Amino acid sequence: MLVAPTRSILGVILAGGLARRLGGGDKALHEVAGRPLLAHAIERLKPQVSRIVLNANGDPARFEPFGLPVVPDTVEGFAGPLAGVLAGLDWAAENAPECEWVVTVATDAPFFPDDLVARLAAAVESENADLACAETGGRTHPVFGLWPIRLRADLRQALVEEDIRKVDLWTARHSLAVVPFPAPVVDPFFNINHPEDVVAAEEIFTNLK
To answer: Distance between terminal CA atoms of the chain?
Structure first.
């Protein structure tokens, strides 16, 4: 399956999470190392894709300072990350005809690899796969994935008509390339859920300076 250069891949930041265990509010706006998690995600993803949109529901005005299109879910009810993937695919089909692929990242993992998109795209091509997702230490990270626009009708059917919510259940229907990433010291997909995770992330940022 031929993937165009990363300059024609749309980046979608999944920012629907709530920071219940971090004191409430949007997790994407929670500050780590002096900046919102969303700012870290944008910085890491921007060089890897042609354009970025933000998948989030509710009032988009709260994200205005970041200057990104805010794309709400296109299926009703909270359907989880697959709904965010579909929202990105729908937006690309309608607004970015040059993009045949969408890559998604989670907003609460500020250390995801700076070669994520290139490696996912290379795996899809080398394995002639339909999709790709990241893996570290034998654990897959399906929300860090590469998705073709051509499967959006299939995904919509799975969400709306079959009530499928787990990412793995849907990707199992297609040829999936699982791409291992090294984690010599820190898992690059380390995500922030608890206050102690914020402390750990602060230390990592300090060591990266």
So the answer is: 39
Give me the helix-helix angle, 152-160 and 81-95, nearest 10°.
140
* Mean pLDDT in consecutive groups of 10 residues from the start of the chain, 209 residues: 68 76 72 93 96 94 95 83 95 94 96 96 96 95 96 95 92 96 89 85 81
- d(CA 167, CA 172) in angstroms, rounded, equals 9
C-alpha to C-alpha distance for 179 and 105, rounded to whole angstroms: 15
CATH number, domain of 94, equals 3.90.550.10
Per-residue pLDDT, 74: 87
Does 1 map to a domain? no
What's residue 7's pLDDT? Answer: 61
Q: How many residues does the chain have?
A: 209
Q: Maximum Cα–Cα distance for the chain, whole Å?
A: 49
Q: Letter for the amino acid at 134?
A: A
Place of tokens 């907003």: 107
